[in-house]
Amino acid sequence: LLSWQDDILSGACPAGPASGLFLFAAIQGSRFMQLDPSLGARWLPGFQGALAATIFAGGLWTALLLTLHVVLRLLLRYQGWLSEPRGTLSLPTRSWLALVRIFSGRRPTLYTYQRSLPCLPLPSTAGTVAKYLESVRPLLSDEDFQALSSQAQMFLHTEAPQLQALLGLKAWWAANYVSDWWAEYVYLRSRSPLLGNSNFYILDFLSVAPTPLQAARAGNAVYAMMRFREQLGRGEVEPVRGWVGADPDLSRPWVMQFPASPGPDRLYHVRDGCSRHVAVLHRGRFFCLRTHGGPGGRLLSPRVLEQQLQHILDDPAPARPAEEHLAALTAAPRSVGLLEGRGPSTQAPLEVVEGAAFVICLEEAPGPSGTSPELDERARSVLVGTGHSRWFDKSLNLVVFASGRMGLNVEHSWADTPVPSHMWEAVLAAECFELGYAADGHCRGTPDPTVGPPERLLWTVPEEVAVSLPLALREAQALARDTDCHILPFTHFGRGFTRRCHTPGSSFVQLALQLARFRDQGGFCLTYEACVTRSFHEGRTETIRPCTVEACAFVRAMEDPRLTDAQRLTLFRVAAEKHWTLCRAALTGEGVDRHLFCLYLVSQLLCLPSPFLTQVRAERWKLSTSQSPKHQPQLFDPANHPDYVCCGGGFGPADDDGYGVSYIFMGESTVTFHISCRVSSPDTDSRRFGQHIQDAMLDVAALFGLGTGPSTRARSGEAAREGKDSVRASRGPEPQQAPSAPHEPEH
């Protein structure tokens, strides 16, 4: 976690150590001016002169810091900006924003808000249960809903008071009553395989590679990532903030990026944040690549890092017996894994891998496979690989292909998508627009012949591990083959159009996803939408349930030929407003699922079974969705460099018969969807669902006047239609006006 220096620095924010030195100098200087700012402290027994002034200066500075922390924490409780119409700020919000900027200092650092974020509030059980019942109403028959409501009322009158009281005690003394249990029971205690279930991926660009040279691309990326880590250690990374410039992100997960691993003892294995090497995995062989060297142990240049990586690519030595498939132990179910039984023969290389800043996976270029184009195969390869080509236990796996394309595989337990996405955007921008490449595709600079080749890690696999390896390999390969990915670049319109519709982009897409899923499966399902709670101390995520009564009414209207577009548009506005209400509740700590999750854990710890909570925990999320964050638009220029914009990433489905859908707004005119499902499921097909998403987006846009001619809508259960209506350019006629929408949350 944070080093003691960082802990002191976070405690000194937002005033900063410089203010303490200034105050100390001022107090000491006043002594020579025959003043007594210590209010008589110089007469305290045993404390005279300079010592008394020092004690007084320290006390005064501590009081100043505490005051700033309290005021800033009170200010950060304000959530009124969530209801502000886009493009306008009320007087209370403008005043609040000015005060936050004053009390957070001129240049907030990564640690400025560390001790000032408010605690996550604990909702009432009655409110949570009411919201839960409302969320499942469109999915249940009248009889089933009546039975569930009776069960919920019984829960509120029997188990709920005791469970809520004990959870309230934890919420009183803990900074966040959810975060530690969420990390431990959802991730660290889980015995499910990381492959395709927990880890997620982020790709680089949609259609271009800055260089075709694999080693060069990896060299620049490694340099940019290690430099970002150094800036992180110095606290020079600015905190991620919202549209108002005052919504901070917690800094603690940032320091766990380099390096971290989930261990068998249900703890984060966070090694020295100053590790000066990375582990490289190539054709089943492991290498230790030193990233620092020379005078002063400085970070090696990108050209020297490329030189080192080329050594590995040119090394013809094969993998040793059992070594080639060793990484499968990190992909299979956790009960079959290297970390469950490490021995002295594996300890040395394992320490190198776990202590590395991250792992680099040098891969062959994925090509089209059957009906899957190269882009789909690249996404699938970064997410799951071959089952034994990723060290899934590491916080970060940098995957670089022979074609020069690359991506990031991220272990999920230490943080959620905003943290690695922020780092990845900075890396891509630095690699392409700052470091660059020479005309021949190599990294800029010159090689260094004095730097030796990377060290090969030689594993001696003990018998107990070798016995479990074939089983782990079979399961990991089966999981990898069963994961299907599809990327849909939707280029008809993007955030620019949704803004003209006065509708938050996430609400627009979520309603289109409900329509697409209805057409794909002929019905509605429980839908998961991730939403961050970074406004609270140690905040991670909350669930939005976008399959509402209002959304279902809109979808049915879209499929009802008796209704007019004006009637459908009215229902769309009602459904979008309801979705935003759910977003606002999740952002302000008034969501449903995390509260019910913690109540369930308390019931289990007390051995007090609750039929209602057990049923809630058994629910299946057949549609799991998330919006990929894009926090640093200033790093990219979609207008002049449309190809050089991060295309986001995705994750595996939460249910074997469901879909995983992630989407990212790329500039003003493109939305990229990342869709996943299980190959073995007879009900799902990622490319078919992608076509339904495209049709649904266009059909919803037609309600606002985008498109020509009558809209030919698909019917539930039918195949996606052909001959879609043409779409006007983004500068076409203005869409029909909808009520002004509030500012959109980030996911």
Description:
The two termini are 24 Å apart. β17 and β18 (670-678) form a beta hairpin. The protein folds into three domains: 4-103, no CATH class; 192-481, Choline/Carnitine o-acyltransferase, domain 2 (Chloramphenicol Acetyltransferase); 484-526 and 546-591 and 620-702, Chloramphenicol acetyltransferase-like domain (Chloramphenicol Acetyltransferase). By secondary structure, the protein is of the alpha+beta class. 41% of the residues lie in helices and 12% in strands. α7 crosses α19 (593-605), α16 (505-521) packs across α18 and α19 crosses α20 (611-617). Keywords: Acyltransferase, Fatty acid metabolism, Lipid metabolism, Membrane, Transferase, Transmembrane, Transmembrane helix. This is Carnitine palmitoyltransferase 1C. One of its GO terms (molecular function) is carnitine O-palmitoyltransferase activity.
